[in-house]
Specification:
This protein is mainly α and 185 residues long. It is 55% helix and 3% strand.
């Protein structure tokens, strides 16, 4: 998709990106999972583990609902541990992609689609805000993306959210940048 969501034919591997500890409830996207400080561990124990009742990690195939629950838990852990803006934004973006995948898999006349589209927009707004903040406060690469890729992604998210002026400004930055690859242009 234009917001960099990969599409697959048989299964959606995006459903498997959030890892959840079935004992304590700590959850994170794969790329961020091992990076915890002692203070963050304490916060997770206090605010997540204390109310965690367990999760089934024995399923071989996740539904979109399973994946959405896991990604929401990863987002909650991001917030509790005080993760960087980029980690929160990337988690919101992945969650938006899963929600989109779920409603795309439903029949066209399903009554849940409108609510899912609203949820997707909320996640995209959070991703947009997070990436804008990360752009100003973090050094590149951010979530494995260089400056031009993040600039393009922010422009696309702004466009999807109806922030057309902001989108045009960001796209112009990409188009005039000497460091932008032909692919991203």
């Amino acid at each position: 998709d234009t917001d960099l969501r990969p599409r697959y034919e048989l299964t959606d591997p995006l459903k498997y990106d959030a890892i959840v500890c079935d004992k304590c409830g700590y959850s994170s996207l794969t790329r961020f999972f091992p990076h915890l400080t002692i203070n963050q561990m304490r916060k997770i124990r206090t605010e997540i583990s204390s109310g965690f009742s367990g999760i089934d990690n024995n399923k071989e195939v996740y539904t979109y609902d399973d994946a959405i629950v896991r990604h929401k838990l990863a987002l909650a852990c991001c917030i509790v541990k005080g993760a960087k803006y980029s980690e929160r934004a990337y988690t919101c973006l992945k969650l938006a992609w899963l929600i989109r995948g779920k409603y795309e898999a439903l029949p066209e006349n399903d009554i849940r689609i409108d609510a899912l589209k609203d949820d997707e927009i909320e996640c995209l707004e959070n991703a947009y805000e997070g990436f804008v903040s990360a752009f100003s406060n973090e050094t590149f690469p951010i979530c494995g993306m260089d400056e031009m890729t993040i600039t393009y992604l922010v422009a696309e998210l702004a466009f999807r959210l109806g922030k057309y002026e902001e989108s045009l400004k960001m796209l112009a930055r990409v188009l005039v940048a000497r460091t932008a690859s032909r692919r991203i242009k």
